[in-house]
Amino acid sequence: MTRRDAVTIAYHALAADDDGRSCRDIPESACRAQPQNFLRHAVSLGLSKSADGLVDPKLVLAWLMTHLGAPAAFVGLLVPIREAGSLLPQLFTAARIRALPQRKYAWAAAAFGQGLGAAIICIAALSLQGALAGAVILAGLAVLALSRSVASVAYKDVLGKTIDKGQRGTVTGLAGSLSALVILGFAVLLIFFTENRAVLVTAALAIAASGWFMAGAVFAGLNEVHGATEGGKNSFSEAIANLRYLREDRQLARFVIARGLLTATALAPPYLVVLASGESGTALAGLGALVLASSLAALVSSYVWGRLADRSSRKVLILTGLAGAFAMLLTLLFSALGLAATLWAMPLALFILMIAHQGVRLGRSTYLVDMVGPDLRAIYTAIANTAIGIILLASGSFGAIAALFGAGTTLILFTLMAAAGAFTAYGLKELGDARSD
User: Fold this and answer.
1) Are residues 250 and 215 in the same domain?
2) Burial of 5 by CB count in 10 Å (0-12 exposed, 13-18 middle, 19+ buried)?
3) Is the same domain home to 260 and 281?
4) Cβ atoms of residues 329 and 274 within 8 Å
5) Per-residue pLDDT of the chain (437 residues; tens, 9 = 90+)
6) Which of 36, 140, 392, 395 could make an SS bond with 84 (beta carbons 3.0 to 4.6 A apart)?
7) Which of left, alpha, beta for 168 (phi over 0: left; psi -120 to 50: alpha)?
8) Backbone phi, then psi, for 391, in 5-degree steps?
9) How far is CA 37 from CA 10, 31, 152, 214, 219, in A?
10) Contacts of 226 (CB under 8 A, 6+ apart)
């Protein structure tokens, strides 16, 4: 059996597509190369998603900063740098990436950039302490986030050019399943080898860096046809010009406000880690349980939220805001009762919080897609992403609040934000009934 035969057999087994159909929306040359491209996509994206989970800023980097004695203000900057750094640069890079005839090299370069960012964080974990360690970790995370923004723009185009319609969800889903197994394995190791947590986290950072380097090398080998390079627009200029829709469409403005308030579910987890570390400042023993709780929340809730969003994405946003507020109140209660450092309390609160966060992510995307037709969908998406990116940058101020008044005070503010987000979402137009008519 030749290597080509083995690749084809593996492709048909994984893609469940052995009926001999011709490709529907990619060129014939890309169709012939699809078995090889499918496996390269699955491997490279699986490596990237696994690395992403191993360098999770909400939990792993928050734990690492606490372990190294970095200030709470630095911990509060982890999620804003990661999320805003992945979002806002797309406004400036999209047109440049569009000008490349082959965008696989942009994704490969971005993967190497993410590996470099993870390597910087790993070096900080090995050699630094205190505020200096925190500053270097944030710098590494910034490199990682900027690279991720490039990868995000490039990947959708490469996927559309190299994988046929009907197989794209399969390949990304396969990569997601592989990465979920890796993260669950990492969580189990952290649970059973608690005395070696620092070693395991540092090793995970090194593995993540290597994973991104390998992902870039695999992805660069894709068989990608040259694409159109004209027609690219300056996304930043377009976004600024289209901000008028926020004034003209009250539902869009209310949606952006609700989505901004519901970012509390993404911003809160690092403060759970800070609270769980206790007043002594020693890092918590339950990192593995937290990672496991976060992974399980994503696995068990996404399908349920998806089904609910098909009925009413507005109600999903309301429910997730209330659930997020409840989870943060539960966290504060555990802290007040002296249970924050126990093995079960914070993982339980985080499990509920991450279920809420998964619902926020799914509900907001579904509502935005449903609220307007295809002619305005891209414009509304750009407006919402720009506004949320700015909000996330501003949310770095919560780290200063935590440094001055404590993580508990910050979580109280996040609780109020989540509740206000639910209330704001309540005023949104109901779209579920309209879709079922």
Assistant:
1) no
2) exposed
3) yes
4) no
5) 666 656 666 665 566 554 445 666 666 767 777 788 888 988 999 999 999 999 999 899 999 998 899 988 898 899 899 988 888 887 777 667 777 777 899 999 999 999 999 999 999 999 999 999 999 999 999 999 999 988 887 887 788 788 776 677 677 777 877 888 899 899 999 888 877 888 999 999 999 999 999 999 999 998 877 765 555 555 566 667 667 788 888 888 999 999 999 999 999 998 888 887 764 444 455 788 888 888 888 778 877 787 788 788 899 999 999 999 999 999 999 988 888 777 788 899 999 999 999 889 888 877 887 787 766 766 777 778 778 888 888 887 787 777 678 888 999 999 999 999 999 999 999 875 444 43
6) 392
7) alpha
8) -60, -40
9) 12, 9, 18, 16, 9
10) 101, 102
232: Cβ–Cβ under 8 A, 6 or more apart, which residues?
94, 95, 96, 98, 99
Residue 13 counted as domain residue? no
Structure token digits, residue 410: 């910050």
Structural domain that includes position 186: 27-223
Domains held by the chain: number = 2
DSSP run (H or E) holding 67 = helix 62-68
DSSP 256-294: HHHHHHTTHHHHSHHHHHHHHH-TT-PPPS-HHHHHHHH
- In CATH, what number is assigned to the domain containing residue 170? 1.20.1250.20
Helix or strand (DSSP H, E) at 150: helix 130-162
Instruction: Return all residues near 124 (Cβ < 8 A) that are at least 6 apart.
Output: 68, 133, 136, 137, 140
The CA distances from residue 190 to 172, 203, 208, 291, in Å, are 27, 12, 16, 9
Q: Do 190 and 259 reside in the same domain of the chain?
A: no
CA separation for the pair 261, 252 (Å, rounded): 14
Q: Are 96 and 235 in contact (CB under 8 A)?
A: no
Q: pTM of the prediction?
A: 0.81
Phi-psi region of 202 (alpha: psi -120 to 50; beta: other; left: phi over 0): alpha
Does residue 160 lie within any of the structural domains? Answer: yes
Contact between residue 281 and residue 69 where contact means Cβ atoms under 8 Å apart: yes
Rounded Cα gap, residues 151 and 320, in angstroms = 29
